[in-house]
Amino acid sequence: MRRYRRAASGVLVPLAAIGFWQLLSTMGWVNATILPSPMAVLLKWWAYLRPLEAFDPAQGSYLKWCFSGELIHDAMGSLYRVLVGFIIGSGLALPLGLAMGYSKVAYGLFNPLVQVLRPIPPIAYIPLSILWFGLGNPPAVFLISIGAFFPVLMNTVTGVQNVDSIYLRVGRNLGASRLTQFTRIILPAATPYIFTGARIGMGTAFIVVIVSEMIAVNNGLGYRILEAREYLWSDKIIAGMFTIGLLGLGIDTLMSRLSSHLLKWHRGLEQG
Amino acid sequence: MSEPSHISIQGVHKIFQSGGQDVYALKAIDLEIPRGQFVCLLGPSGCGKSTLLNAVAGFSLPTSGVITVDGAVIAEPGPDRGMVFQEYALFPWMTVEQNVAFGLQIKGVEKAAIEAKVAELLAMLSLTDFRKRFPKDLSGGMRQRVAIARVLALDSPIMLMDEPFGALDALTRRNLQDEVLRLWTELKKTILFVTHSIEEALYLADRTVVMTYRPGTIKRDLAVDLPRPRDVASPAFNTLKKDLSQLLMEEQSRHNQAEFRGAAVD
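Output (structure tokens, whole complex):
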């Protein structure tokens, strides 16, 4: 009962906001080209989602037809870039972070460069990325990897450096070799930090994909809302924005589910 | 001496630097521990009893002097001297059985043998029902049982215990003390047990070594030959307890004066 009530109170504010927004449009207080009504946005979203052409068995299966809409196409494009960029960025950051956290020598060698490069927003790499990689997926993936790289790197370094020394003492007492210490103690002890880094990195990757599509790619959700602006399709802009929001929420939920599943031992540990 | 010592501590000094001055955490410690003896190191906090234990464990080696086990000089930590820590120090990412199995995996014991040994130890410490749990889901007493099982898995002839029950409530504490006594009788280990509780020392040990506050020296080496199980309410027990209280009180007041002097200088 209490759960339902909480859920009900959760939709109260969004409903009020949508109601107010609908009121603005219905009463004609704002120009529909500037701010279309929620209903118009919803209709546009549906049109954006559904297949462009009528079902034709000759063209392929029904399922394929179902996913032939423009929105699905754009979302898949964005998702693909996010995943590839994230895998490259975090894949490079993880080993470097482990090395920097574990070895003072590696930390001393790499940290100055990392500290200089880290404050540069990934977006500032756009000109270079186009110069180096031209247009299309390569520059986008490049930018996204940079966005994912630093959060994963910094958190991995911190995670390894913060491994409680008591665990290492126990490891030595049990006779663990350096390799065993690293793989069985340091690595698992650092995973909560690494996962936090991955989650932040994924969030950054998602921001960067939208920006990079606005500049270097001619499909994807970021490209689509910029294109809609040129035609003054504000309803499609907003529909696209909501799609971006939903996709981001979905990715983040997935990441947090995954990490709480893999870190069962850690859940609630902070509270003792 | 008829039998050679199991653990031999000879002329051990441990000097720390503090504010440009040498602090003698341990000064001229000599201690011969025969095989199978249960020895408690007793003293106020800061008296160097944990320092001595860490030196035997090999975590921090003496500044001078030698510690030998079966005649071999200790140079580093090793699974022949399993240690139970006050803060349990279980690996939180491993289940109870994984924690217990870890030492055996490091040794390279084959899988079937590990499983058998872990099952035996879990049964011995009444942990079988909790074998799939993570440490965070266990009470303090349970965690310390797991830590003991983890050390027992090593089959080390020596067990080092650093105030292992300091954080537990009185009932759990007595319970685990009895458990340790039972295991010690069954497995015939040499135990070096650090505590600041007089009662705990007298309840457990064959021999209680009282240490002094800076410099850390041995103030009294007392054989406790009361029959087991010991009755903490018996007159004999309480006579010893009173004696030791007196000793510790002297140490405590030296400690307080030292702190007071320190404060005055600051």
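Chain B has a mean pLDDT of 90.
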